[in-house]
Write a structure and sequence with these properties.
Blueprint: E1 2-4, H1 11-16, E2 17-20, E3 22-30, E4 36-50, E5 55-67, E6 71-74, E7 77-79, E8 82-94, E9 101-112, E10 115-128, E11 132-144, E12 149-164, E13 167-176, E14 181-193, E15 196-208, E16 216-228
Antiparallel strand pairs: 1-3, 2-4, 3-4, 4-5, 5-8, 6-7, 8-9, 9-10, 10-11, 11-12, 12-13, 13-14, 14-15, 15-16
């Protein structure tokens, strides 16, 4: 892996760009017989962070996958065994983390095995003066292959509330239309003193069903209490 990350000190770029990011890397994997199975060559010809903290990037990935047997790349979409060479691209941008509203986005596109795909990541984070944080994320995938088309969607919500630096409630909710499962994880953290903490964790899952009586059926729940104590002489 190689990287070059210069910082412009003046001129036009120096007024707007804090640092450039250029890098390249390569990964190769062989089977026990010495035959190449997978290779990834990644190059980022353009990436930079502005003086205000925003970041932008563009990268290219050249892929080679040798499938020794038929592979199900998505539900109901099976790729025949063989060698696949394909190139994908990624665009990404994000606002500075110090802002009360943070937006980030990523877009992967290009070839995908025998066809093409689009992979979009969108995120929005709201910060409320250190007392609460709300983050919304979505990952939307669309694939177009000669074998078939497929789509995958994952949605996430994170909601954290801090009554003090030592006491907080963290919530994480996720739904994906692959397993049709909705999951919720809640955690209370209370730091009594440095090194002494109490955690209360509760997890619950539902399965989405097309039932007129209710679209989500509970799958199970679980609660855990964890106490961490630091004993010092």
């Amino acid at each position: 892996m190689g990287a070059f990350q210069p910082r412009p000190t003046g001129g036009f770029f120096g007024q707007f760009v804090r640092q450039f990011f250029f890098d390249a890397s390569a990964d190769y994997y062989w089977d026990l017989s010495g035959n190449l199975e997978t290779s990834r060559i990644n190059a980022s010809p353009l990436g930079f962070r502005t003086q205000s903290g925003e970041r932008f990037g563009f990268s290219v990935v050249a892929n080679r996958d040798v499938l020794p047997y038929d592979f199900e790349v998505a539900e109901g979409v099976v790729l025949p065994a063989g060698r696949y060479d394909f190139t994908s691209f990624r665009l990404e941008a994000s606002t500075a983390n110090h802002r009360p509203v943070v937006v980030d986005a990523g877009y992967n596109f290009g070839q995908f095995y025998s066809g093409h795909y689009d992979d979009v990541n969108l995120g929005l984070t709201l910060k409320f003066k250190g007392y609460a944080t709300l983050a919304l994320d979505a990952n939307i995938v669309r694939g177009r292959l000669p074998e078939s088309r497929f789509s995958e969607n994952v949605y996430q919500v994170k909601a954290d509330i801090f009554l003090s630096p030592d006491l907080g409630l963290m919530n994480y909710v996720q739904f994906d239309d692959i397993s049709n499962t909705l999951g919720w994880s809640a955690r209370v953290r209370w730091q009594i003193s440095p090194g002494n903490e109490i955690f209360l964790v509760y997890n619950k899952n539902w399965e989405r069903r097309w039932d007129p009586a209710g679209r989500f059926a509970p799958l199970g729940d679980r609660g855990v209490i964890k106490i961490s104590l630091s004993i010092r002489p």
